[in-house]
Amino acid sequence: MAEDYIGGVGKSPKLTYDLLKEEDYATLKDNPYADINPLIFATGPLTGSAVPSSSRYSVTGISPLTGIWGESTSGGYFPIALKRCGYDAIVFTGASEKPVYLVIKDGEIYIKDASNVWGKDTRETIEAIREELDDKAIRIACIGKGGENLVKYAAIINDEGRAAGRCGLGALMGK
After folding, report:
1. For the residues 37-55, what does the mean pLDDT come to?
2. Phi/psi class of residue 62: alpha, beta or left (left: φ > 0; alpha: ψ in -120 to 50)?
3. Alpha helices in 20-111 (DSSP H)
């Protein structure tokens, strides 16, 4: 698959197409917050390499803003950290009954309660998670109050200010 669908912008549509049935698109056009809407974080083959501008990741899903395909990208240190965890893509489906966040550390994946950061802005969220995990170097992509309140143009913020800001995919993290 990695050879046929290069990078996050290639893998994500393929993963979405494989996950959704034809009738799901009609559902998502009317309700992009439906649990079937996949939110995909993906890196490319050059992410974290010495190639200039290669520290990028893409985030995709059916946009709450438009009801059609949504894709946004961001750079910084988060994409490198994601790639070094050993994953080219992480696919989120369904919805949690309470706020949660995902931690990947030392090859292990954990889902942690995020109730203590719900309602905070992104800078406060990043600091609170770093304190909770006792790791000042951990890289975080998160949402703020816009995403929590399902604002249709909410961004996903990483590295204290870099934004995957197109298509309202931050709202999908808040669903």
Report:
1. 92
2. beta
3. 22-30, 78-84
